[in-house]
Specification:
By secondary structure, the protein is of the alpha/beta class. The chain has two domains: about 90 residues, Adenylosuccinate Synthetase, subunit A, domain 1 (Adenylosuccinate Synthetase, Chain A, domain 1, 3-Layer(aba) Sandwich); about 45 residues, no CATH class. Helices cover about 30% and strands about 20% of the residues. The protein is built from five helices and six strands; from the N terminus they run αββββαββααα. The strands form two sheets. Strands 1, 4, 5 and 6 form a four-stranded parallel β-sheet that branches. Strands 2-3 form a two-stranded antiparallel ribbon. It holds the Pfam family Adenylsucc_synt.
């Protein structure tokens, strides 16, 4: 049986909670878009966790978690989040990252902060995580994909 949890682009609408509730019986959980700017809290036998980038299936050893090509992949943040849950006794999760996922770069975060500063009193309240500049680049087909980290010609 296939179960899909799809949001309506309203932001905090409970997708994470529903995914966590169904996750225990799921073989695969896919994070298809978004970044580390938002999150959801999960309380389970391991403790209380605020996940921002990781799919909520990371708590189930039988579940493969996929980070898809629509995710704003902040690699240092992802590693920090994995290290955090493992240090709290969660078994190392099964995670696959799409080779077409685009990498959120430090300059995206800088641009986000500069734009908020530039807007002054008219700022829109960014989390300054680089999400808006990241997606601007992604849709303009500018940036780096995970696959490029493994392409010897690109690395040179």
């Amino acid at each position: 049986m296939v179960r899909a949890i799809v949001g309506a682009n309203w932001g905090d609408e409970g997708k994470g909670k529903i995914t966590d509730m169904l996750g225990e019986k799921s073989d695969i959980i896919v994070r298809f878009q978004g970044g580390s700017n938002a999150g959801h809290t999960i309380i389970n036998e391991y403790g209380k966790f605020a996940l921002h980038l990781l799919p909520s299936g990371v708590f189930y050893q039988h579940t493969t978690c996929i980070i898809g090509n629509g995710v704003a992949l902040n690699i240092p943040y992802l590693q920090k989040e994995i290290d955090s849950i493992v240090s709290q006794g969660v078994p190392k999760p099964n995670i696959l990252v799409s080779d077409r996922a685009q990498i959120l770069m430090p300059y995206h975060i800088d641009f986000d902060a500069y734009e908020e500063e530039r807007l002054g009193g008219k700022a829109f309240g960014s989390t300054k995580s680089g999400i808006a500049p990241f997606y601007s680049d992604k849709y303009a087909k500018i940036g780096f994909q995970v696959s490029e980290l493994f392409d010897e010609d690109t690395i040179k």
